[in-house]
Structure formats: structure tokens, C-alpha cells
Write a structure and sequence with these properties.
- By secondary structure, this protein is mainly α.
- 81% of the residues lie in helices and 0% in strands.
- The protein is built from 4 helices and no strands.
């Protein structure tokens, strides 16, 4: 594994953990109907995570099921589009958080 790929993989793990850690506070904000700005920043970081995962999958460094991931993201985005923030909160807590946690366990620092 090249140094650049190793660093990319390490960055993926850090970003993934950061996204997981931010889910619960975002859900609290969504459920209390406060400002949704944090969700926007989280989605920006999720975009970076997605792009990094695609690169690492193509390089055969990771082997994550991007179809399942895309299904969950599409459901999340549908909830945002429909302004159904209870659905968004549920998607984050019960669909994406477990998936991202599983990914974190799969990413090894080798």
C-alpha cells in the first residue's frame, strides 16, 4: 500500500469516527426543531467520506457495499427534501450510525 493510500485510509477512519460522534447531537437539534445548519456541515463531510470510500474501493483497499450505503443516503435525502426531520433523525440514528460504526470496525490501520 502506498503512503498516499495509507494516509487516505487513515483520513477515512478519522472522518468516519467524527461523523458517528456528531450524529446524536444533530438528532437532538433536529428533534428540538432548532437550526439545521449542523446537518448541512455533516452532509458536506459525508460527501467527502463518500468520495474517499469510492477511491479506496476502486483501489481494493476497502470493500464496502456502496449500494446499501446509497440506499440509506437516498432515504436520508428524501427526508431532508420533504422537511421530515423526524425521519432524518431516525435515518441517522438507526440506519447510518450502525452502518458507519460497522465500517469503522472494518477499517484496519495496517
Amino acid at each position: 500500500m502506498t503512503e498516499a493510500i495509507y494516509e487516505l485510509k487513515h483520513s477515512l477512519k478519522e472522518l468516519n469516527r467524527n461523523l458517528i460522534k456528531r450524529i446524536d447531537p444533530i438528532c437532538e437539534i433536529l428533534e428540538s426543531k432548532e437550526d439545521k445548519e449542523r446537518l448541512s456541515y455533516w452532509l458536506d463531510d459525508l460527501t467527502i467520506l463518500t468520495e474517499t470510500t469510492i477511491v479506496l474501493n476502486e483501489k481494493k483497499v476497502t470493500d464496502f457495499d456502496l449500494n446499501l450505503f446509497n440506499e440509506k443516503i437516498n432515504d436520508l435525502l428524501d427526508g431532508i427534501e420533504n422537511k421530515d426531520f423526524l425521519l432524518v433523525s431516525d435515518q441517522l440514528q438507526y440506519e447510518l450510525k450502525p452502518l458507519l460504526t460497522y465500517w469503522d470496525e472494518c477499517i484496519k490501520n495496517d
